[in-house]
């Protein structure tokens, strides 16, 4: 049961959630309307999709769910995205373009994530210009590719390579930031530098507070801290058919994430002037490398290098909340 002032956002994520079929979402909406009468208006929905299966039926039910913005991802480089072992990129690109055109026809907003791979490193500025030519309403974010097993396709990158990729693009964005306002991580970093620790806008990977804000719910009702924790079958909080969300958020295992934030401040991250921007990074990235949470992540290095080598010299700004 939610407290009167609280809201809950259900993020439909995958894999590809549209594989569930349109009737699944109709049933979810039906159950919400019949069972959640006391929380009407306080439950919101968001969705991430690759858009290759989107059609008018999906859009109609999403509107009923209050969804007017869809998050997606896009990859223009051949042989990275697409169905089948040979990666049918032509099919993927065609379906993606059809999808965004259908969203535009229905006045549904969209933004996307661009995942930076080894193949991206060859032409960062060219990719930036290509991606900014989309007439999206939600902007886009650039994230490094995360490989959790064998790198069969040789697409993994190092933190330094990711920092240099962003650094190659940043001067171009800085000169044209009013023309391309919604490009991240640049926009969010600039906003946080302007705030200097007062009202920082941080995603879950940097907030140091994910213990109190997120829960993953799997196909059978199993719960964990987030999607990756669920995939790796760690931090199991039980099943929503047997435990309330209130109990799940009070699970003692969550305290480890809070302890991590306090621990890192005096350990791996002691003395770091970017602490307020990073908090040691995502606990699951730390777990992937160390098989425990009490470490900063390798991607902290990418943030530090980008800020000191590129962002601060170009902007003339310095981040120091104690100044």
Produce the secondary structure layout.
Blueprint: E1 8-12, H1 22-35, E2 43-47, H2 56-64, E3 69-73, H3 89-105, E4 109-116, H4 124-132, E5 140-144, H5 159-175, E6 183-184, H6 186-195, H7 204-207, E7 216-217, E8 222-224, H8 227-231, E9 238-239, H9 245-249, H10 255-266, H11 275-278, H12 283-290, H13 299-315
Parallel strand pairs: 1-2, 3-4, 4-5, 5-6
Antiparallel strand pairs: 7-8, 8-9
Helix pairs in contact: 1-2, 5-13
What does this structure look like?
This protein is of the alpha/beta class and 323 residues long. It contains 13 helices and nine strands. The protein has a four-stranded parallel beta sheet. A three-stranded antiparallel beta sheet has the order 7-8-9. A two-stranded parallel ribbon has the order 1-2. α1 runs parallel beside α2 (56-64) and α5 runs parallel beside α13 (299-315). The chain is globular and about 55 Å long. The mean pLDDT is 92.
Strand order of the largest sheet: 3-4-5-6
Portion in strands: 5-15%
Q: What is the helix content?
A: 40-55%
> What distance lies between the first and last C-alpha atoms, to the nearest angstrom?
43 Å
Number of strands: 9
What would you call the shape? globular
Average pLDDT reading? 92
The chain-level structural class is alpha/beta
Oligomer: single chain
Radius of gyration: 21 Å
Instruction: Sketch the topology as an H/E string, one letter per element.
Output: EHEHEHEHEHEHHEEHEHHHHH
């Amino acid at each position: 049961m939610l407290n009167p002032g609280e809201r809950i956002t259900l993020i439909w994520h995958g894999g590809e959630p549209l594989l569930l079929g349109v009737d699944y979402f109709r049933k979810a909406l039906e159950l919400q309307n019949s069972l959640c009468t006391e929380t009407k208006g306080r439950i919101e929905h968001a969705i991430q999709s690759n858009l290759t299966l989107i059609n008018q039926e999906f859009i109609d039910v999403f509107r009923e769910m209050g969804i007017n913005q869809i998050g997606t991802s896009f990859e223009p480089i051949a042989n990275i995205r697409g169905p089948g072992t040979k990666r049918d990129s032509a099919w993927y690109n065609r379906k993606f373009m059809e999808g965004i055109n259908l969203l535009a026809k229905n006045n549904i907003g969209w933004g996307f994530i661009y995942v930076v791979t080894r193949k991206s490193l060859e032409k960062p500025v060219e990719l930036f210009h290509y991606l900014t030519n989309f007439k999206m309403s939600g902007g886009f974010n650039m994230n490094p590719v995360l490989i959790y097993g064998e790198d069969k396709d040789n697409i993994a990158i190092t933190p330094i390579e990711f920092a240099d990729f962003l650094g190659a693009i940043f001067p171009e964005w800085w000169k044209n930031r009013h023309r391309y306002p919604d490009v991240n991580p640049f926009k969010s970093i600039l906003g946080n530098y302007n705030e200097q620790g007062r009202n920082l806008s941080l995603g879950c990977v940097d907030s140091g507070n994910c213990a109190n804000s997120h829960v993953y719910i799997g196909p059978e009702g199993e719960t964990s801290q987030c999607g990756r924790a669920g995939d790796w079958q760690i931090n199991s909080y039980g099943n929503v058919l047997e435990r309330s969300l209130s109990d799940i958020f009070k699970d003692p295992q969550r305290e480890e994430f809070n302890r991590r934030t306090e621990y890192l401040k005096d350990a791996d991250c002691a003395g770091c002037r970017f602490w307020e921007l990073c908090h040691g990074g995502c606990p699951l990235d730390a777990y992937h490398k160390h098989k425990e949470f009490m470490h900063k992540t390798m991607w902290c290095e990418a943030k530090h290098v980008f800020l000191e080598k590129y962002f601060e010299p170009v902007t003339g700004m310095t981040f120091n909340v104690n100044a």
